[in-house]
Amino acid sequence: MLKYVGLRLLQAIPVLIGITVASFFLIHLVPGDPARIELGPRVPLSAVRALDHRLGLDRPLFDQYLSFLSGAVHLQFGESLALHQGVGGVIKSKLGVTALLMVYSLLISLLLTVPLALLAAIRRDGLADHAIRIVGMTLFVMPVFWLGLLLSLVFGLELGVLPTGGYGQGVAGVLYSLTLPALTLALVTAPMFVRSLRASILQALDGGFVEAARARGFSERRVLFGHCLRNASISTVTLIGLVMGWLVSGTVVVENVFALPGLGSQLVSSVSARDFPMIQGLVVVLAVAVVLINLLTDLTYAALDPRVRL
Amino acid sequence: MDIGQAGRTMLKPVHQAARMRLWCRRGTLAAITLAVAFACAGCGGSSTNQATGKASFYTAGTPGGTPVHGGTLTIDTGVVPSTFDPFSNAGAAQDELYQIEEQLFEPMPVPGKPSQVKIEPALASSYSVSSNGLVWTFHIREGVRFSNGEPLTGEDVVFSLKKIESPTDTEVTDTKPWKKISLVGPMTVQLQLTAPQNVVLPELLALYQAGIVPKRLYEREGGTAFGLHPIGTGPFMMKSATPGFSTVREVRNPHYWRGNGQPYVNELVWNQVESSNSRVLAVRSGAAQIALDIPYSQVASLKATPGVRMLVAPEWGATINVFNRAKAPFNEPNVTKALLYATPREEIMKAVYKGIGEPANSIWGKLGYWNSKVPLYPYDIAKAKELLKHSSVPNGFKMTISYVSGETEGELVSSILQSAWAKIGVHANIQSLPATTLYSNFFSGKTQFIVFPPEEGFSNVYVPYFASFYMDNTEPGWAPPVSASVVAKLEQARVATSPAEQEKLYGELQYDTYFKEPVAQSIVTLASLNLVSESLHGFQMMPDTFMRLEQAWLQK
Lengths: 310, 556
Description:
The complex is a heterodimer. Chain A is an all-alpha fold. Chain A has helices at about 1-30, 35-40, 45-55, 60-75, 85-120, 125-140, 145-160, 170-205, 210-215, 220-255, 265-270, 275-305. Chain B has helices at about 5-10, 25-35, 35-40, 90, 95-100, 155-165, 170-175, 200-205, 215-230, 275-285, 295-305, 335-340, 345-350, 380-390, 410-420, 435-445, 465-470, 485-495, 500-515, and strands at about 70-75, 110, 120, 125-130, 135-140, 180-185, 190-195, 235-240, 245-250, 265-270, 290, 310-320, 320-325, 395-405, 425-435, 450, 520, 525-535, 535, 555. In chain B, the strands form five sheets. A seven-stranded mixed sheet of chain B has the order 8-9-10-1-11-18-12, with helices on one face. In chain B, strands 15-14-16-13-17 form a five-stranded mixed sheet. In chain B, α17 (about 465-470) runs antiparallel to α18 (about 485-495) and α18 runs antiparallel to α19 (about 500-515). Chain B is globular, with a radius of gyration of 23 Å.
């Protein structure tokens, strides 16, 4: 397995390089000069050019990219043009918020998914099954920001049980403040997982091994949880891996609605400010995260299905 | 989520690329307007006084009473600064920085109460002017200390004033009012001017940018480091800020010179909350006490919401939509006038701005030399067609209206103008662009007509600066200078020493730039829309968006 992990990480390097190349050159294609943004509209062109020179923005693009790459290898992303602070420090301070939000939302999503999918499968074509699928579809099509505001209104304002926004302090405070944002994301991702898991469970329930398990006198609970669920979860694990990538963009919206100081909102503001070092740093971090998530997904396959050899 | 807010803060602006400084002078320049009292207390003609407008849509500040000490005042704002260096260009471009920063630093005079069009002495306790108007002598207040305990000295004042000469893009360097700053006594600073500027100078000195900093500390640390740990004489001092300044905490300055128990609250917490809906929810749930910049569309419903107060205050400036007069056919006055006559102002004021604000007859708002006699453009399709007939495009033409993506008001105004202008044969295509891209296109002359967000309205505190920008822009990517006679009038106004003469000249310039040779379209005066908690007292938003938070207190 270690060999497999090592090989996957090596394979990730050209992927990461490709991502940084694409993002670097794409952002430079968008109109907007960071020096002009920094100095305002009335400075003479000479002042803008002087700042461009000081920041190294007048060098050929390829040179700028190579400088960035050599720094990135040492995890040095330079100084943010907009914030005048080290990119690494800013990312480090915000990474935890986004990571925690993603993991928390995934946990809530799974807590919702497993029982609902099981219920829907067991009560196939019954009232519960239809209700779960209809509600799930309704939640799935709701815009994330709208759902977030709705939850904030209900739980934050009307019921007053959860904060409407902000990032708490301390472990309890952080979890408390992230509950609504995580629930928002979970309510959008859970329907996908429920449908996938429900279909897989139904397929598994028709399998010979389930019949054999029942024939051996196992309880229905043992059949479902011990045999059926494990087999059915593989396709859902694939979906989780894909959705985690989507969650990265989902956090942008949620961080905006709930005023969370995470990477998503930082990325949006950096793009607007044409803060090239910060954008590059964030792209690298997020790309690495997606690569690691995909690797984790593959490792989970192996853990779930002994037939899978890494 | 308010996508408009997200889009707007992308520049920002608002961090988010700073708003282009042309548009972001509300607070700083607003302070200037009030210079009348400091410079000439006797001045008070109706055209120079701040007009509060109709009372029907404006609401007063929060109730007063006997202040209660203590508590934490939380303010949710859409955009946060990228530095607290008062002399930084980037910082200077952001109103939000100004609102946070003005609690930390103080200039020599400060804006007074909104009911008075004047500034008040602050770090300068008094001043005198030589008979020829060229030498101004300021007496620095004794006994003032910075928040780190160091005493304020004349050297600090000289250093700070010299610092604001350095940036290349400030009102100070634009006007270049002084040729020499000197320390003539331990606590006496003298400015030798290039020309008499009775009205301009006190206004300039009331800018937040002219906040006084400790010289030795600033020189030792440098601007960047100082901007992360600022020290000033303001009522509050910086306690902490998260990287990226998404949350900034300021605590009472124990050395604050005003006394009287001010500031009353122990701590200010500024949160970056980009979504206006989220800001509203925060105040309604009690998580925050002030939510800044509420959209026009929510004002009516929030006024009826129990437990909160919707404050609608006049704000200096007016909405401004700009033609690219460097491009045909907008370089023809008949064309721009035709479009202005074909603009249904009342409809826009009602549908977009919900009846808040007054019709604007000036591109720089209704204050400081405001001339009430300048006529508004009536909605007159026949007149518009007639004007167009005497232009190079008698049968109309195609054009593009651009607005900042996510800006609800911009989108609505663009739609209304599109259908209105179609009646005179002008067929507009609407284009929505991110703020940074739009401004970049604007200054490189690629746009034709831009509907700017209301916050970007022209703040008229410093009329000469903006008049200059529109009239003798040396890098006309979008606007060639107006006629030589108008430019000459501006020069004359700049150096006029008599308030009456200045009022006359700027009043004429208002007519010239709005009606005679229209440089832009202005629809309605601006309003400051903020939601506050009922527990907040002593708070008032001034027309320059300045907030004297040392006077605010929280009912327990």
